[in-house]
Amino acid sequence: MGRGGSRAAPAAAMPPWHALPDEVWEHAFSFLPAASDRGAAAGACRSWLRAERRSRRRLSVANCYAASPQDAVERFPAVRAAEVKGKPHFADFGLVPPAWGAAAAPWVAAAADGWPLLEELSFKRMVVTDECLEMIAASFRNFQVLRLVSCEGFSTAGLAAIAAGCRNLRELDLQENEIEDCSIHWLSLFPESFTSLVTLNFSCLEGDVNINVLERLVTRCRNLKTLKLNNSIPLDKLASLLHKAPQIVELGTGRFSADYHPNLFEKLEAAFAGDGLAVSVSHLHKFHLNIETVNFQVMDLIEDHGLAVVASSCNKLQELRVFPSDPFDAAGQVSLTERGLVDVSASCPMLESVLYFCRRMTNEALIAIAKNRPNFTCFRLCIIEPHTPDYITHQPLDAGFSAIVESCKGLTRLSVSGLLTDHVFKSIGAHADRLEMLSIAFAGNSDLGLHYILSGCKSLKKLEIRDCPFGDKPLLANAAKLETMRSLWMSSCSLTLGACRQLARKMPRLSVEVMNDPERACPLDSLADETLIDKLYVYRTIAGPRSDTPACVQIV
Amino acid sequence: MEATVAYAKAEAENLMATELRLGLPGTADDDQTQTTKATTPPSTPRGKKRTTTFDAVEETTVAEEANNNKRDVEAAPPVAKAQVVGWPPVRSYRKSCFQQASSKQSKATKEEAATPASNTTTSTTAANGSFVKVSMDGAPYLRKVDLRMYKGYRELREALEAMFVSSNNGSANLSEFAVTYEDKDGDLMLVGDVPFEMFASTCKKLRIMKRSEATGLGSARQ
């Protein structure tokens, strides 16, 4: 700004900082790994915007409809690793209508066009077709990492294309996908010359896998560290497989194999005594504990006494998930209660993430848990029966969850359950400053509950609500908040079509999607404002209304 | 804040009259000064609850259910144990697997999900819980649908149309095709003859075939 112009410059004649070439800024920005920091830098001035966007290597699109694929590719031309997420979280539980959207194809097409050097692609809750996989295999000569989480729409034929076409593939990570079995031996399509695999996870695959082909693949990939199989591999073959591949550090044996082979660990232990192999078996009730265990997923068949053992042995535990073995069994024959969670929270100092399904809880237990573990970042408690109060005092669990949000200042994700009134939402709104994702079901008494959340919770990004008595008023009163969030899902609440229309008019940068009851004969346009709607999904977007909605979804 | 004052006022005015009743009346909040009711889901999950906080809990009657607004609940007679859609929030593939794991018999191989112990209305047929394959003549690959997600034939038909018809042949519609299914005995049946729940529990896979091929399966249905 007028300095350094005509004055005598220092001997080295360095350019003033604001005239440094882009490459210098790009190098500086490479030290900002967090996308939010890079975004902030890009907002400082035009030259930083230019430098930052042209050097961005990793891009995460948390909502595939927030921007168009073309926008993304144009703005960030140098991306090497992209992650795109699609359907709302409640799609996992069947609440989102089929054919809702989230097709990966437009993203793959845009990437093939604009990012030929793409190395990593990750899709979550999207519809990925075999054509997408074929295009990926054909378009990116240095493709290395494919991660598909909770996706559907593809088959083993698509996997075959990846195996055959991606010469430099390091990671093939398939988590919880719906994969059609076309009886194609896709594993055998990795060429004999292919040796670059580091991670292979096909635990969600239903079909059989040729053990000999697997063995040959695993043997020749000397850098293979993580192998997660499905349960088509018989136990005895597993041991011989591992003998041939000592480079494997982490092994997953797929779902439920241990239920049918209770001797699994004894056998594996005998085979690998002292090798330091970490074996993880999902959904296991006969568990094998390792003092180094960091993530532990188990079914409630472990019961309180089992969790007590976990508590006393695994003091490095960071994440615990306990699932219900029989979610629809009212009698609750399994003895897993609040006790188990209290024990683990008391004895595992590094525990920061919990997903816990149980049938009873008390405020006292929650208060104790909050006191024990102020370092929780993710606390998801699901009391299976809706509206369950404290089973001793019969009070709502407001006090317990309030204690959690008051104590755990770093909490970023919370799911509440049980009998809850508006009071708990007042606490959450006031105290959960870092909360980014909140899941609410069968809770609250009135509009106030939703108002507390939307007018508080400074960092809220994702809010998902079902079966709560929340109506139009708090939604409209807090419309501006919705633009600061990624998305809002509300189903089976008390919202009217009129409020959705108003919201859409008021906030043009939000996309307001209403999913109507398919039993209704008439299209949304002809319905009165007073009509109650079943499902609402609102998200901010710069791409305008999408054009791929099925008949039961309408953008208001 | 203005908004808060408005709410407090509205609460004080007792919104009960305008509030929509969704299920069981009564709430636990005797401590609360306001008397707004908690709405509960229309499903009456269990006859005998451990959680009897509701002083005013009444058995849900058929009449009461009829008064409630339609919600996202599978249709079930009030007496039977109704399941709320998507609750508890467990992924569907986990559900079917859990039922396997907790079943008393030990199975040597992975089989199709056994009938759960309790008398729930889950329809578990295909290997993936209630997901059944759907094939359509002329379509290059198959799809899968979760039959538990649909309340009736109409919803299912609309979903199938959305899946197959809109993407492929824009002009054709589902009335040119007959929707058939393979039942537990392996027989090919026309969809629509039996009550939806019965169909959902016996259907193994769906096949959408050209009407011209569907001769001999009875009167052509919508």
UniProtKB/TrEMBL annotation, chain A:
Classification via InterPro entries: COI1_F-box (IPR041567), F-box-like_dom_sf (IPR036047), Leu-rich_rpt (IPR001611), Leu-rich_rpt_Cys-con_subtyp (IPR006553), LRR_dom_sf (IPR032675), Transp_inhibit (IPR041101)
Regions crossing the membrane: none
What Gene3D superfamilies does the record tag this protein with? 1.20.1280.50, Ribonuclease Inhibitor
Q: Name one GO cellular component term.
A: SCF ubiquitin ligase complex
Q: Which residues form a coiled coil?
A: none
Superkingdom field: Eukaryota
Q: Where is the COI1 F-box domain?
A: 20-57
Biological processes, Gene Ontology terms? SCF-dependent proteasomal ubiquitin-dependent protein catabolic process
Per the database record, which ranges form the Transport inhibitor response domain?
77-123
Instruction: Output this protein's name.
Output: Transport inhibitor response 1-like protein
What is the taxonomic lineage of the source species? Eukaryota, Viridiplantae, Streptophyta, Embryophyta, Tracheophyta
UniProtKB/TrEMBL annotation, chain B:
For this protein, the record's SUPFAM superfamilies field holds: CAD & PB1 domains
Q: Where is the PB1 domain?
A: 129-211
Where does the UniProt annotation place the signal sequence?
none
What cellular-component terms does GO give this entry?
nucleus
Q: Which keywords appear in this protein's UniProt record, sorted alphabetically?
A: Auxin signaling pathway, Nucleus, Repressor, Transcription, Transcription regulation
Give residue spans, biased composition: Low complexity: 114-125
Q: Where is this region: Disordered?
A: 18-54, 98-125
Location(s), subcellular: Nucleus
- Assembly notes: Homodimers and heterodimers.
Relate the protein's function as given in its record.
Aux/IAA proteins are short-lived transcriptional factors that function as repressors of early auxin response genes at low auxin concentrations.
This protein's name: Auxin-responsive protein
